[in-house]
Structures are given as structure tokens and as C-alpha cells.
Specification:
Number of domains of chain B: 2
CATH class of the largest domain in chain B: Alpha Beta
Strand order of the largest sheet of chain B: 2-1-3-4
Largest interface: A-B, 77 and 82 residues
Shape of chain A: elongated
Largest sheet of chain B: 4 strands, parallel
Helix content of chain A: 55-70%
Structural class of chain A: mainly alpha
Oligomer: heterodimer
Structural class of chain B: alpha/beta
Largest sheet of chain A: none
Order of helices and strands of chain B: HEHHEHHEHEHEHEHEHEH
């Protein structure tokens, strides 16, 4: 027996592993372009959030139909990948269905369950394709989805469909060969789903069937490896990053904006209040607010890489719903695109962050960030706890404090607050006038 | 017969007294013609129930919320630190406010600057008073049996997870509470948060408050209840935009309770 298939398998597997590790390093470096931030408090709550939201899909179930379809694909992904372990071992050892003799009837039951999942994934992906391309569900057709994002979404679904078809084809030809008593093939006494398509192959010769079975096997395993690499270029990264992303969720009340201690020191000095922390000059003069990805926290960038562009945020955004340019999904896509651009430039020995471009200005406009009502609908809607609002507010801080470039009406509001301690132009001495009337009224 | 009392912290401190709770009025509650009525209604309720309270009066200043949301952290902190000095000077422990923006800022953002208080929204305060039997509602007032819908404010709802207190207050009025399609965690903003109250909206195809008002009117409600001064303005404008101001009124929770109490 030739070792050639095993050698080829090892070469392909090794190449995929090497390439993946390179991609992981690239992504990790890009995420860490963001500022350091420590968010390790309340570990119990963090594990719980990850289990509920990522592992348990809790927030998906706000929309029941996509939730169920997505659940099929998710469970299929996790469980069918158990079978991939067998694929890999078979590939390395040159065996065929290595686990079958050890697991006996449990193996057959598992195969039937995997087939059920494969069919469920197939069905779900077809429905998803219909939703995207025929029903044209609104959130998939917004301007930021034109071009690559739409193609990316469709490619992922088509790849998943082909991979599932490969499994079913492999199983059905495998079982025909087993029933015919061809050596190496083990009969399971019929498989629930691939059994249905057996008639398509029954007239074929043993040699043709062996070719199809082997082809489907190779196609499936090489396809999975290629898909794993593809995922690192795609919005599909959420299958891995949803887990760390939910672990690093913001656990504070959503309405709370983070404090800027560097401002507190200056304010205390201006008001003549002794600072609690002795005023060490900051080691580096950082910007106020965010202009580019390195001004954001690494968690903001992790958020961007975890976004699968489902658009639930945008479909709940009051600004977007009423035709404003702001789309929280686009904010996340822009952060990711900018991180990719800087990362690629750095790898090519280019200027990186110093390329004369920036997130605010070249990717995101003031018109977009100014339209936000800070209502937290996007944050609430995100199935993996991404926080677009945090990024928007950090950019507003940059515009207000570094550029004094806020809308004129906001600058007027700032002025009112500075001079009369109210956003409206009223005299502070009139603040208590409302009580005059009520103080004269007789209590009933 | 005595008149309603509105003691200030300064007056009380002068007499060596400390109130149980500080009523934080907020800028809208102090200056906005429409929202002053809400402030007055709430003060009447506090008087009627005999709650020991005081206001800061002229010593109050904007919490800084709109400045912070618009990106001006310096201005926010100037306001916040000055307010905290006043509040800590009076040793304030508990704050009640009818403005969800003030509520959110004092509750969640002042602690980082040295201001630690128990902060509750007036919907929660009213619910407590009703539950404790301190507010006795006639239930036969002008709202009895009417269809009323409640518009969730973002800074009360999603921002701070307060969804039930305002609904409990409305239900105590013996009315039919009807929900909009987008309510509670999915509630649609009125369009004024994040300092939008203080500027014109960006170009678009519709104003957010009109979108929200259409949804409120679609419930068939005869009144829209709110718990926020900005929401009150936005929803009132929305109803006017739809030319329904004769049929559908917009009320704050405190006004509804005060009306039912006959004060």
C-alpha cells in the first residue's frame, strides 16, 4: 500500500496549520494596535456572560427564525467538527473510519446524528441565501454591504453547503461500497439521510464509487482546512472571537461613559482641588478621544474583528431607521478595515499608522458620529455584545477637545453651560423661579 | 390651610436640618415651560405625602450630561466636580430626580469623580410611595379605563434597566396600559439623547420623534406617558406634527399621579 496519500495529507495539513498560525499572529497584532486596557474584573460574571451569550446564543433568540436556523449551523459546526478529528487521524494513519470498530453502535448513532445536522445546516444555509438574495432582508442590503461584504456572506453560505454535500456524498457511496462487501468499507445497516440519495449512485461501478467516496473525503477535509484559513480574511471570524468578545463585555450600566482621569487632573487643578493622585506628567502625550485605531482600546478593535455584519445594530438604530448616514455596523466594519490596512502596511514595511490617513475622516465622517443619540439600541441588539457606541463617543471627544470641531449648535450649548451652567441660555439666578407659583398655592 | 413648601438645602442647613432626600430638579425641570409643570406636580406629591425633601435651588447646575455626550469632557467634569462639591458639602445621601439623564449621570458617572449617592428616578420613587400606601390613588380620575402607552426613555431603560417601575405607576391609575411594538429593551429613542436635544438632526428622510410618535399613535392610546423631559418635548412635538394634539396628550408620570390625587 502506498504512503503517498498520507504524505500528501500531512503536507496539506501542515501547510494549513502554518498558514493559520501566521494569520492568527497578524490578527492578534492588529487587535493590539488598540490601546491597552485591563478588563478582568468579576471573572465569574464574565464566564457566565460568555456561556450565556456566546455559547448559549442567548441574544440571538430575540429574533426567533434566524435564531433557530443559526442554531442548526452553530451546533452543526461544533459537533460535525468532532468528526473532523477522525478525518485528520484517518488522513495521518492511512486508516478508514478509525473510530468505528471501537464505538460500535454508538458510532452508527453518532453518524446518523451528524447526518441530521448536515441536512439541518444545508437547509439553514439555503434559507439564509434566500433571505440575503431573494427576499433581500433590509439589513443585508444597506450601503455598507455592497461589494465584498455581500460576496463574503454568500461565499460562506455556499462553502458550507458544498461541505455538507461532500459529507453526505461520502457517506452514501461509503455505504453502497460496504453493502457490496468491498474491503475497508464497514456497513452500518443504513444511514438515515444519506440513505435517501443512495439510488443516485447505485448503478455506478465499484471503481467509480471508490473514486467519488475518496474525492468527497479529500474535498471535505481540504475544504475545511481552506475554510479555516478563509475565515481569517472574512467577517466569519465571529465563530471564534465571539467567545473572547463576550468575555470582555462591558459589565457596567450601559448609560455610563468611561471617565477620563487625565482630564480630572486638569479640572482639579483649575478648581484648586488637590488631586488624589500626585500629578505625574503623563509618560506620553496622548490624544484626547479617538482619531485612529491606536486611540481606541484593543477591546474596541476586538469588537470590530468579532462583528459578523448581521446588521441587527443598524436595523435598531433610530438614526439609521430615519435615513441618517450613521450605521453602527459600518462603524465596526470601518474599524476593522482600518486595522487591516495599518496591519498590512506595517507587514510590508510601510508607514502603518503614519500613512496620512485616519479612521475619523477617511473612513468615518463627522456627520455619522454626530447623528448618534447614544440610545444603546445597537449595543442591546448585538448578539455578541459589541459596543459601537463606545467608539462613536470616543471620536466625538476627539472632535470636541482636539479640533473644537463640534456642530455650531453644540458649541453654543457648551458656551451656555460655561456661562450659565445650563445647556440653555437662562440666567442662573432664574433657576429657582419655578417654585414661586407652587409656594403660593394652597395645599389641597 | 398651608401652602406647598419647597425648602432649599441652604435653608435646611441654616436650621441645622437634613432632609431625607434631595430632589434634583435638572435644567429642563427648572427652565423648560412645559417641564416646570412636572417639577411642580412632583413637589406637590412630596408635600402631600410628607416626604422630607429639599432642592438645591439656585445652587444647582447642569450635571454636564449633554457636554459629555457631545464630547466635551472638560466641560462635563467642570460641571460634575462643582456639583459634587455642593452635594458633598451638604452631605447628601439620597437623590431623586425626574430626569433620566441627570439620574444616569449622578448615579453612574459621579462616583468616579468622588460623588457617591443613592440615586433613584422619580418613577421608582413614585412606585415605592404607591407600594407603601403613602400615595392613595382615587383610580376614578380622568385616566380611569383609558388606553395609555408608555414610551421608554433610553437612559432609564437600556442604560439602567428600569422598565417596570414606570409601568407599575401607570397601572396603579387603573388604566389600560398598551405597549408599542418597540418597547422595553427594544424601545425606540425619541431622538433627543446624546445631546441631540441641542442641535438640528443630520440630514435624513424623517425625524426620529415623528417615527416614534407614529408608533405610539398606532396603539390607539389616548395619552402617551413619559418619564423624561426630553422625551416629553419630542413626543409632544411629534403629536403636533401629526396634528393629534387635541386627541392625544403627552404626560409625565408625576403629572398623572398628581392629577389623580386631585392636586
Amino acid at each position: 500500500m502506498s504512503f503517498l496519500p498520507q504524505v500528501i495529507f500531512l503536507i496539506i495539513f501542515g501547510a494549513a496549520a502554518w498558514f493559520l498560525s501566521k494569520r492568527v499572529k497578524f490578527l492578534r497584532r492588529n487587535i493590539l494596535l488598540g490601546k491597552s486596557e485591563t478588563r478582568n474584573d468579576q471573572p465569574d460574571e464574565r464566564w457566565k456572560t460568555m456561556l450565556l451569550v456566546a455559547f448559549g446564543q442567548q441574544k440571538m433568540f430575540k429574533r426567533i427564525i434566524p435564531a433557530i436556523l443559526h442554531l442548526f449551523v452553530y451546533v452543526g459546526f461544533i459537533i460535525i467538527n468532532l468528526e473532523v478529528l477522525e478525518f485528520v487521524l484517518d488522513g495521518i494513519l492511512g486508516t478508514h473510519r478509525l473510530f468505528a470498530p471501537f464505538l460500535g453502535s454508538f458510532y452508527v448513532a453518532a453518524m446518523n446524528f451528524f447526518e441530521f445536522l448536515a441536512v439541518a445546516v444545508l437547509f439553514s444555509c439555503i434559507v439564509f441565501l434566500i433571505r440575503r438574495n431573494i427576499l433581500k432582508v433590509e439589513r443585508f442590503t444597506k450601503p455598507e454591504m455592497q461589494g465584498w461584504p455581500a460576496l463574503d456572506g454568500n461565499l460562506i453560505l455556499v462553502i458550507e453547503i458544498i461541505l455538507m454535500l461532500a459529507i453526505l456524498t461520502m457517506n452514501t457511496t461509503d455505504q453502497i461500497l460496504a453493502d457490496r462487501g468491498v474491503s475497508h468499507y464497514l456497513a452500518f445497516g443504513g444511514l438515515a439521510f444519506s440513505g435517501i440519495i443512495q439510488p443516485l449512485f447505485e448503478t455506478m461501478s465499484d471503481a467509480t464509487l471508490i473514486f467519488i467516496e475518496r474525492f468527497a473525503w479529500w474535498f471535505h477535509i481540504v475544504g475545511i482546512l481552506a475554510f479555516a484559513v478563509y475565515v481569517t480574511y472574512s467577517k466569519h471570524l465571529h465563530i471564534f472571537l465571539a467567545f473572547p468578545n463576550t468575555w470582555y463585555s462591558n459589565l457596567k450600566p450601559k448609560g455610563e461613559m468611561s471617565n477620563m482621569p487625565e482630564v480630572t487632573n486638569e479640572v482639579n487643578m483649575m478648581l484648586g482641588i488637590p488631586s488624589e493622585t500626585p500629578s505625574d506628567p503623563p509618560s506620553e502625550i496622548a490624544r484626547f478621544g479617538a482619531k485612529d485605531i491606536n486611540d481606541l482600546s484593543w477591546i474596541n478593535v476586538l469588537n470590530a474583528y468579532s462583528c459578523t455584519e448581521c446588521g441587527r445594530c443598524t436595523s435598531e438604530c433610530p438614526a439609521n431607521l430615519t435615513g441618517k448616514k450613521l450605521s453602527p455596523r459600518k462603524i465596526m466594519m470601518d474599524v476593522r478595515d482600518r486595522a487591516e490596512e495599518v496591519g498590512k502596511s506595517l507587514d510590508a514595511g510601510g508607514k502603518g499608522l503614519e500613512d496620512g490617513k485616519s479612521l475619523l475622516g477617511d473612513y468615518i465622517s463627522k456627520e455619522e458620529i454626530n447623528a448618534c443619540t447614544s440610545c444603546n439600541a445597537c449595543v442591546e441588539a448585538c448578539p455578541v455584545n459589541i459596543d459601537p457606541l463606545s467608539i462613536i463617543l470616543q471620536m466625538r471627544r476627539y472632535v470636541a477637545m482636539e479640533e473644537s470641531g463640534s456642530p455650531a449648535q453644540w458649541n453654543a450649548m457648551f458656551q451656555n453651560m460655561e456661562t450659565s451652567f445650563s445647556p440653555w441660555k437662562f440666567s442662573p439666578s432664574d433657576r429657582f423661579n419655578w417654585a414661586e407659583k407652587v409656594k403660593e398655592e394652597e395645599m389641597k | 390651610m398651608s401652602t406647598y413648601q419647597v425648602p432649599t438645602m441652604a435653608e435646611m442647613a441654616g436650621k441645622g436640618e437634613t432632609p431625607e432626600v434631595l430632589f434634583w430638579v435638572g435644567c429642563a425641570g427648572s427652565f423648560d415651560e412645559r417641564y416646570k409643570a412636572v417639577t411642580q406636580a412632583f413637589v406637590k406629591i412630596l408635600n402631600k405625602v410628607g416626604v422630607s425633601f429639599a432642592v438645591l435651588g439656585p445652587e444647582e447646575a447642569c450635571t454636564g450630561d449633554p457636554a459629555r455626550r457631545a464630547g466635551n469632557e472638560f466641560l462635563f467634569q467642570m460641571q460634575a466636580v462643582a456639583n459634587i462639591q455642593v452635594l458633598n458639602g451638604y452631605e447628601v445621601k439620597k437623590v431623586v430626580t425626574a430626569c433620566p439623564h441627570c439620574f444616569n449621570t449622578i448615579k453612574n458617572e459621579y462616583p468616579a469623580l468622588g460623588g457617591n449617592y443613592e440615586v433613584i428616578h422619580h418613577s421608582q420613587f413614585l412606585q415605592q410611595l404607591i407600594n407603601e400606601g403613602k400615595v392613595t390613588l382615587k383610580g376614578g380620575g380622568e385616566f380611569k379605563g383609558k388606553k395609555i402607552t408608555f414610551h421608554d426613555s433610553c437612559y432609564l431603560g437600556r442604560a439602567n434597566n428600569v422598565y417596570e417601575a414606570p409601568r407599575e405607576v401607570i397601572k396603579a391609575l387603573d388604566v389600560e396600559l398598551v405597549e408599542m411594538k418597540r418597547c422595553k429593551t427594544k424601545g425606540l429613542c425619541c431622538g433627543a439623547g446624546g445631546a441631540q436635544m441641542f442641535k438640528e438632526p443630520e440630514p435624513g428622510k424623517k425625524d426620529i420623534n415623528v417615527e416614534r410618535t407614529e408608533e405610539a399613535l398606532a396603539t390607539g392610546a389616548q395619552a402617551i406617558a413619559v418619564g423624561c423631559p426630553f422625551c416629553l418635548t419630542m413626543m409632544t412635538d411629534g403629536v403636533k406634527n401629526k396634528e393629534k394634539e387635541e386627541e392625544v396628550k403627552v404626560y409625565d408620570l408625576a403629572e398623572m399621579i398628581a392629577k389623580d390625587m386631585g392636586i
